Amino acid sequence: MLTVICDTPGTLTAIDRPKPVPAEGEALVRIRRVGVCGTDLHIFTGNQPYLSYPRVMGHELSATVEEAPQGSRLAAGDTVSIIPYISCGHCDACLKGRTNCCRNIGVLGVHRDGGMTEYLCLPEEFLLKADGLSVDQAAMVEFLAIGAHAVARARGRAGDKVLIAGAGPIGLAVALFAKLEGAEVTLIDSRTDRLDFARRHLGIASTVLLGDGDVNQLSAITDGNFFDTVFDATGNPKAIERGFGFVAHAGTYVLVSIVASNISFSDPEFHKRETTLLGSRNATIEDFEHVMKAMRDGKVPDALVTHRMHLADVPDSFAGLTDPAAGVVKALVEVA
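The chain above was modelled as a monomer; its predicted structure follows.
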């Protein structure tokens, strides 16, 4: 089967691997679509803290079931969305239902080989039937679920003023689900094309371009109070540190980004505001189901997919996705 492997940063190679054979309790699935994530771009550029090379990338996945275990709820031909966070089920986090931050987690495409291949064998509990969704939609559930999970972590209320820093796919996912929860959403980013995309396709009317005067604009939007909840989706340490200043008194700061750096902040300001600081990692099955329902209800725009390529073209074409001029929001790799 055709497989694309990242041998070293900047080097992708198409190889042939044997088709896998499912173990007991596993289903054999044929990969249909692979969403390209910021994590994949970081792997390609050599800026992913949890990874060793070589690695098959790809964790935003939809597939079709080829073989299901005996007595399974799945059947051959089912379209599924794959939960790529392979959790152990027995650590403290898993026993609390927090499988997204399992102590022994193995994320497809990061800790173990992922979906840029034709077939995978996976335990059936990590396969969600995607009835009513296209294979494109089923592949987008994962990144949207990260946004939905971050919004759920914040425990906000309708009418809250919310700021999302970073208008990449994850930031847009946070904006979408915060808006669906009734928040008054503002996006800040350095790219006018991303802000324009959010206005046109997500209905985010309040956007601020990073740069001179942005603090005054954010203050004016909130009558000087700043934001009930701030989400960071920049992947930039300095942006994360700056974001503490945009949190209102009694507000919440949710770090969706992960950076290979230490983060510092003013402790007096942190205590004065009684800031709640939260990390948000991956997503749970409940978040996946929430996103799938929103898709079935027509609340997630198809316009999020802006670029496509075939699996065989990935070694030659992937680098182009890293160019801001390409205007990529979400790229899908078509496998079958």
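The longest strand covers residues 26-36.
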